[in-house]
Structure formats: structure tokens, C-alpha cells
Amino acid sequence: MSALPRILVLTTVPQTMVAFFPRQLRSLAEAGFDVHAVSSPGEELDRLGRECGISTHGVPMERQVRPRQDAVSLGRLVRLMRRLRPQVVHAHTPKAGLLGMIAATIARVPVRLYTVHGLPLLTRTGLWRQVLEAAERTSAALSTRTYCVSPSLQREVVALKLCAAEKVFTLGSGSCSGIDLDRFQPTNERVAARKALRIPQEATLVTFIGRLAKDKGIDVLADAWPEVTARHPNMHLLLAGEDDSTDPVAPAALARLRQDPSVHLTGGVPTAQIPALYSATDICVLPTFREGLSQVALEAGAMGVPIVSSLVPGLVDSVVNGVTGILVAPREPGLLAAAILQLAADPARRREMGQAGMAHVRTNFSDQRLNSLWMAEYQSLASSLALDPVAARSIV
Fold it and tell me: DSSP character for 236?
């Protein structure tokens, strides 16, 4: 066993692990922690292990509620934790959080950490909302510490009584891992990127990056876009992301977008190609109904691209309204169109906002800063374990 504790980091799907945690996992391993990454199996998880020099374990998990499959996943996680005997389990995202905290409690893992990345329950009603609230409360109750990826999300968690106020934390300005500023920085790839995407070089390009989901406000964007192009004919819209069958966009809205010659849908885009999308973009758009922090807003800021988004928890931390972007009330197509047109008509303001966005992200959300904060947190927990392993079971 290494001198520092064995840490097991858990996400539902490997894409989340790959998107957020490679540098953090590598840094922990280099610092002497015995790091194990657990997620649904796949080549992405295997490659992550090789690149970061850590152990990986594939445990099939469903993102949706599937009682029979979830019970099987829980049993596999318990067996894995009993075999590995980690001192720290850190679970991310709702399903991995719930299964991970239950399994870690059963396996008597002394330090159980759960990070809330967002609250899908905010856009749900009735029985389904009650189920989601119960799941979040269970994950938080079984954790020894709960973290949120933004201060505004932390306030929501406390206000909804999902976790005791004294037990929930946000490190720094927020984020679970920060932004890789080596990858996300302004480049001279605009011409080549537009050529590859078949976007006219003279067009003003508005880009959405993320799941094509109802909660992301795609229906609202579909309603706003005709007003944008009616008043500014040289506008083009790029939608980069896969259809989300678990939260589908209204078929009529998608049909309107697909039939509009000014709209370009790429489907899923490999992670390595995401920076090129920002290079081609004049204005980023994210008309979401809910968000934990918004990685897209931070990436856009790091690339010097202003954003039009929603005035909701999470976005108020990642976007400085009127400075790095414009926030408007969610579910309001007219307000969304007006904000897009405002920036489309003012290139100088777009440049000013882009510069401010770069400074905001570099100051508050660099991955070096966040990784240092998380490293200090893990080392503090390691010290507690070393001093009193029994007391560590009740760390709060």
C-alpha cells in the first residue's frame, strides 16, 4: 500500500471521467496516492488508465433509473470496494453518487465524498421530482462530505434541504476540475475551422455545444432563431452535440432547425475537436433551464468567446453578466433573440467581453488552481486518516 490513501474515483460513464479528470487523476498518482477510476466499461476508460498511470475498473451502470440493473451494479461496486479496501471514495454525478455512497457505506469506507454537478430535479415535477430529491438526500446523508461545483448550486442544495449546510462545501470559485488553459486558448484556426464546418467566412456564427436536450433550451433556441435571422440575415447557427433520448427536444423544433439552411448540426464531436469549434465562433449560446456551473461557459470564456445564456444557478458563477456575456431569463425566446442580436451588431463589445472572459477564467477556474485545491483537500483528509482512522469515519 502507498504511503498516501487509496482513492477510488467513480463516475457513471467514462466520458465524464475523460472530460473532467485526466490531469487531476494523473496529479494524484504522481503525488503518491493509489488512484483507481471506476466507471462503466469501455475503451475510453482503459485508455484513461494507460495515459494517467492509474488502475481502472469497469462496472456497468445505467444513467437512468433501472432497479434491476442498479441492484446488480450496486453489488459489483460493493464487491470491488471490499476487495480494494479504499480509504477514500469520491463519486460524481447523480447515479454514480447514489450507488457509490451506498456501496461505500456497506463496504465501510471511512471517507465518502460526493460531488453534486447539477440538479436534474429542478426541471421535474410530481413523483419523479420526489424520487430525484430522495436520491440526492440519500447520497448526501451517506457521504462524509458533499461538494458542489458552484456557490449558487450549493445555495440551492441547502435551500432544498438536500444536505445539511455544515456538511456541504464548494472549493474556490467552483468547478470539479477547472479548465485546461493549454487546450482552451485563442488560436488562429478560425478560417480552417469554418472551412471544415462549411460555415461561410463572413457569417456571424452562434454556436451551441452540448446535449441536444429539452433542459438545454433547444426548443427555446428554435423559437428564437427565426427572429435572429429575420433581423440579421448573415447569421449562422452551429449545434454541436448528440440528441438526448432521455430528455428529447420537441420533434417539431428539431425539424425546424434541420430544415433551416442557416443551421448546421454536427452530431457528437470528439473531445479533441471542441476547441476548434470555439475558434470558429463569434457568440456562444446556452439557453439552459438548469446548470451546475457550465463547463461550456468556462471553455468559451477561456477561448475569448462571449456567451448568451440563462440567468439560472451555476451560470451566475461562470458568467459575469454584462461583462463576459449576457444572461437572460430562461424559456424566453424573445429575450434570447434580443441578446444574440445585441452582440451580433457590436463586434467591439464581443471583443471586450471575450477579453474579460479570458481573465475571469484564468483567475478563477484554471485546472492548475482547482487541482491544487483538490490536492490540498485530499491531503487534509489523508492527514485525518493517519491521525485517527476511527474518527475519520465521521469526518464532516
Answer: E
Q: Give the span between the Cα atoms of 368 and 302, in whole angstroms.
A: 14
Average pLDDT of the segment spanning 240-254: 94
Q: Give the whole-angstrom CA distance, residue 382 versus residue 33.
A: 10
H helices present in 143-199, as ranges:
151-159, 190-197
Q: Which of 228 and 396 is assigned the larger pLDDT?
A: 228
* Domains located in the chain, CATH noted: 6-178+366-394 (3.40.50.2000), 190-364 (3.40.50.2000)
Q: Distance between CA 196 and CA 243 in Å, rounded?
A: 22
* String of DSSP letters for 346-365: -HHHHHHHHHHHHHHHHHH-
- Asked if 292 and 310 count as a contact pair (C-beta separation under 8 A), the reply is no
Which pTM was predicted? 0.92
Residue 38 CB partners (closer than 8 Å, separation 6+): 8, 9, 10, 11, 56, 57, 58, 59, 77, 80
**Lookup result for grid cell 471506476:** 38
242-265 burial, b if ≥16 CB within 10 A, otherwise e? ebbeeeebeeebbebbeeeebbbe
**Exposed (0-12), middle (13-18) or buried (19+): which is 43, by Cβ within 10 Å?**
exposed
Amino acid letter for position 202: E
What is the residue-wise DSSP string for 268-325?
S--GGGHHHHHHT-SEEEE--S--SS-HHHHHHHHTT--EEEE-STTHHHH--BTTTE
